[in-house]
Predict the 3D structure of the following.
Amino acid sequence: MMHAIAPGKVILSGEHAAVYGAPALAVATDCHIHTRFIPGRSDRLRFSGDLLDYSYALTELAGLAQVLNQRFEAFLAGRLPVDQLLDRPDQLLAYVMSQVSSDTGCLLPGGTLDVRSNLPTGAGMGSSAAAIAATLLLVERLTGAAYGAAERFAIVRYCERLQHGRGSAIDAAAVSFGGLVKVAGESLEHPQLSLGRGWYRVATGMPRVSTGQCVQHVRERFGHSAIWQQFAAVTESFQQALGGQADMHDVIRENHRLLQQIEVVPESVAAFVSAVERLGASAKISGAGAVTGEAGGLLLLYAPDFDPVQLSALCQRVGYTCDSLEEDPYGARYLDN
């Protein structure tokens, strides 16, 4: 049995703006997707685990990839909504396996791909990119592919388009390389900075709409807005604040205001952020947020002077959960069994 993991990610600054070429900062976290491949004796590939229970004949994979590519072309042409690119989660991972098999000319063996996650559901922590990256590592071994880090990052980004439609490279970068990453258009950097103490991730609940739907909604309403220049300036200030050259609370609060302007912060989440600010801390949506409903996915909270027990109690009063944010410096990797 082979075993690989890939971390989730938390966007520090630049969500949505990254789609328009503005810089975005993200950090890989210590929550992971685990994938294991158990060889079988049949000519079928089974997907099991979290939300997965489906199998394919190995001969079906190439046809599935062709169908999904056609759907993506229809999406680009405006004939298909983003939430209809995939019918089931297993199709995304089957697509990854088909792509590598096609690229290498190697047939995949039959068996079971088991996928388990300790990432919060619907929290915008890059679970799709993490699942792709961890699956890709296993397929490399199965087919004898020898991808470098840059090639692996490119494949993760290419396959992830089926989940989010038009997106940025930030998820693929964070889960592939680990640590702190900065993406601006097609450029990728690894700032040598530390988060420091006092960071938390707050789960406000699973949004009613997908990341892809939020991205599409924002594009339709703000795609040609000048607001992305303001987001770019805030992200640069965020990086400066990590280096001690700006006040982090001021930066996060300005970021929150911009996210409210593009309508991805539900009213109940905004009310919670206001309460946090009155106490002297700061918070902002991290990820796509939501354009309808009361749940906004993940909230990034900065409170270096607070007792974690006090924060947990504050969150519990509104039905949220709060966990410390810890960095994973390594990215996708194999684990010995």
Remarks:
- The domain at 2-191 is CATH 3.30.230.10 (Ribosomal Protein S5; domain 2).
- The CA atoms of residues 179 and 329 lie 4 Å apart.
- The radius of gyration is 20 Å.
- The chain has two domains: 2-191, 199-324.
